Amino acid sequence: PVSLAILTSGGDAPGMNPVVRAVVRTALHVGARPFAIREGWRGAIDNLIEPLVWSDVSSILDKGGTVIGSARSTEFRERDGMRKVAANLVRAGIDRLVVIGGDGSLTGADTLRERWSGLLEELVEAGEIEADLAARHPELHIAGVVGSIDNDMVGTDMTVGTNSALCRIIDAIDALTSTAASHQRVFVVEVMGRRCGYLALMGAMAGGADDVIIPELPPEDGWEDAMCEKIRAGRAAGRRDSIIVVAEGCMDRHGEKITAQRIQAAIKERTGESPRITALGHVQRGGTPSAYDRWMSTLLGYTAALEVIRAEPGEESCIIGIRNNRLQRLPLVETVANTKKVIDYLEEGDYEAAVRSRGTSFSR
Ligand code: F6P
Description:
This protein has 12 helices and 11 strands. By secondary structure, it is α/β, with parallel strands linked by helices. The longest helix is centred in the first third of the chain and has 23 residues, at 103-125. It is elongated. It starts with a strand and ends in a 6-residue tail after the last helix. The model has no long low-confidence stretch (mean pLDDT 96). 6-O-phosphono-beta-D-fructofuranose binds at residues 11, 102, 148-150, 192-194, 248, 285.
């Protein structure tokens, strides 16, 4: 039987466990041998690789985070770290991986695939593995699943954990709205997402916020006045609660960071109100996955497992994602490169290009 391993890497996301469960059970169902690599790439270096049975993934469908652990490993990015990983995998008879992580973890996985035969040659020459063992594993096959609440991967509509994070954000905004209304207060709500404004924008829409600032659309100069005007107009119309959502990673047109504190100060100065700040932080990432994140992740895990189990020689690494509400096989290298392009455009200040590259579901 073929052996495959699963690892979760980078920031955890609700829905990672359903992927792990689906991969393990799909593998067992088709007669393959599933292994877990604990603690992400760090565990691959330290040989934290162990076989899993059906019951090892019982009762994890509803658990947040990742039960097999995750880590950010700098050592894995170096050739020496990858050499250790290759040695540990091949000794365990593993040449198929399902990697759940963000773009960094997935790029690392593909680099390992590229270097695989060279690394095995080195290991054979150094006498660290037998030549016939290396010959039995000429290639490494990779299927990636994007696990990130940020929803920042180009080419896939929804990444694992985003929907749960959004549900958390909405719960928080709803809760803040009632206390804001009681005191006629402004709340500035800071949400995660790195350089991607998806959570902020969708959270603001679903939460009925007064205003939102996202990295992809830095506000024009004078935005503070415009924002306060909206707040004043709302008050004049009898609106008791005001919610401003700001994504982390926002800049103004001059490259200065727009933080919740800066917004708070601007509102205070212009309106005399005393806004409160709520930075939602890791509450967005933790906790139980939503129904969507459970079933979508199950489908992604099932598909990714079959993808690596049935991989043909010479196949490129892929990402299993969702596009137009359908499961989709995306080329890993190209997908990650397109995602990097968005960040480059943002850094160059070409916001239109960034938005265009990120893709939109609406066109006329
Ligand atoms: O990428 C997921 C994410 O939660 C981002 O939204 C956030 O900026 C970052 O990770 C936080 O990272 P850490 O958990 O290392 O503080």
